Amino acid sequence: MSDVKTIMLVGVGGQGTLLASRLLGYVLEKQGYDIKISEVHGMSQRGGSVVTYIKYGEKVFSPIIDKGTADYIVSFELCETARWLPFLKKGGKIISNTQQIDPMPVITGAMKYPENIAEKIKNMNIDITALNALDLAAKSGSSKAVNVVLLGVLAKFIGIDKKMFIEALEHLVKPQFLEINKQAFELGFN
What we know:
CATH architecture of the domain at 5-133: 3-Layer(aba) Sandwich
Shape: globular
CATH class of the domain at 5-133: Alpha Beta
Low-confidence stretches: none
Number of strands: 6
Mean pLDDT: 92
Strand content: 15-25%
CATH topology of the domain at 5-133: Pyruvate-ferredoxin Oxidoreductase, domain 3
Helix content: 40-55%
Largest sheet: 6 strands, mixed
Strand order of the largest sheet: 2-3-1-4-5-6
Radius of gyration: 16 Å
CATH superfamily of the domain at 5-133: Pyruvate-ferredoxin oxidoreductase, PFOR, domain III
């Protein structure tokens, strides 16, 4: 089972984790991998935590990713990076947007948003690439393209030709949003 790779996409409702998982699933399937995807929506309509498990390899039996076994965690929001950190395997990689979306306890004043999350993770000797994907998405023409910016970053690390991701965008994204998403992908990839 060592040929099986695992990716978690984590964020909050409305950030596009589901489209990102569809794009990634399309790319992996076109590469001939057996794939299992499981989406957990939680309170996604109210900005709650959303996680998608993606496993791919020669033969995959279950989509579930246990603690300490994720090869990659792609996080759309900093607090979600911290929440799902225990799932990263030793030697795994985190790609995190630096955007902060206040969860309900912060909004109500019951808690404060944790400070310096990315720096604290780096100080734990964990491989993390933290970037302002929201700004890059805005440069592409839509702040909603954070998901595709992050896929662009992930594409550099998983060893699949970026042309496959462009094909996935052409296949799954509505024509009126295609050029924005292609640009968002390139900004993340570069």
